[in-house]
Amino acid sequence: MAELTRVSKNRTIWWENDTAILIDQTLLPGTYREISIRTVEEMWEAIRMLRVRGAPAIGVATAYGVYLGLQGRTYSDSKAVIERVNEVADYLATCRPTAVNLFWALSRMREAAEAHASLSPTDLCARLLEEAHIILQEDNETCRAIGRFGAELIQDGMTVLTHCNAGGLATACYGTGLAPLFSAHESGKRFHVYADETRPLLQGARLTTWELRQHRIPVTLICDNMAAHCMKAGRIQLVLVGADRIASNGDTANKIGTYSVALAAQAHKIPFYIAAPRSTIDRSIPSGNEIPIEERDPREVVSFGGILTAPEGIAVYNPAFDVTPADLIAGIVTEVGILRPPYKESILWAFSRTPA
Going edge to edge, which strands form the sheet with 245-247? Predict the structure, then answer.
């Protein structure tokens, strides 16, 4: 097994020799494999099949996907490039519906194309690759800032519960939901993490525990249905998770099971925090009721490790995400600070700030 330091402490997706390189996360933790993405169709498949996952990482991958979709063609003028950008962006928008960073990145690439329409076709394509590089660099800086602000929530001797994976593997490098843990650990704080396995695809078991061990942060894996018991037993003092889309009122979509954890945390008077960049906040929607929830292949539920665990032909409901209401969330850790209720006001404040 390869050392994860190549991933969580360095990079998860990068650009090399006119190719996007990413870690195939469907193979972790058993196999470390870097895959080369050379076409927009390959990037669509990689995002759809969770080879790259996590809202920020999806955003970075999408930006590179737009550029890849421009390759192998001849353009008469910049208008033709812009038309192709829009065509590719519409195609990429179909791969996953919930993570708003995908649509945010597509908007960034569309806007960059329009803003530089005076360039030659060759120079415009080069400028769009530059924009993808900027999005990746911004992600790195944003995650580090989330880590610094969120580290203040972590105290010596504390035990923190997390759900799914919001570490370096979910971003270009450092993570969102795990960034405060990484930052706190680097500053010398000592604490313990409980990680939900996160059924049906086990992102917590496969990815989160792996990252935390490589950072030498003590971690205990539990089944999803053990979280409330651990809270009642006094084993948990804080819950910290990532997000895939945050509505303007603070309602938050995250991996399925997050809502249950938030309800249990409220019942046991344990603070529940979200950590996410401002790009995950969708100010165009008023509440979580408007967040589209992706439904995935039933085969993810009826089998485990390739072994059928349910009767053939059984009906399956497999939403990939759920929505946690804002009134269950103690705060949202962003790159400009920790937002507190009421979230309509604090989100407006966050978008008026410039990251330090």
Answer: 281-282, 245-247, 252-255, 321-324
Regarding beta strands 321-324 and 252-255, do their DSSP bridges make them parallel or antiparallel, or are they unpaired? antiparallel
Angle at 214 between CA 334 and CA 10, to 5 degrees: 60
List the domains of the chain with CATH numbers.
Answer: 4-144 (1.20.120.420), 148-351 (3.40.50.10470)
Per-residue pLDDT tens over the stretch 109-140:
999 999 999 999 999 999 999 999 999 999 99
Count of C-beta atoms within a 10 Å radius of residue 328: 18
Assess contact for 210 and 28: CB atoms under 8 A.
yes
User: What sign results for the dihedral spanned by CA atoms 125, 130, 136, 138?
Assistant: negative
Catalytic site residues?
A: 244
DSSP 77-138: SHHHHHHHHHHHHHHHTTS-SS-HHHHHHHHHHHHHHHHTTTS-HHHHHHHHHHHHHHHHHH
Contact in structure between 141 and 355 (CB atoms under 8 Å): yes
Q: How many CB atoms lie within 10 A of CB 325?
A: 16
User: Is it true that the peptide bond before 325 is cis, omega within 30 degrees of 0?
Assistant: no
Q: What is the mean pLDDT of residues 196-223?
A: 96
> Closest Cα partner for 103 from 283, 345, 297, 256?
283
Does the CA dihedral 58-265-226-318 come out positive or negative? negative
* Of the candidates 183, 102, 172, the residue with the CA atom closest to the CA atom of residue 140: 172
Which pairs from 314-318 meet CB under 8 Å and 24+ separation? Answer: 318/200
Dist. CA 316–CA 147, nearest whole Å: 38
User: pLDDT grade, residue 6 (50/70/90)?
Assistant: very low
What residues have CB less than 8 Å from 311, skipping those under 6 apart? none
* Residue with the two structure tokens 């049906």: 200
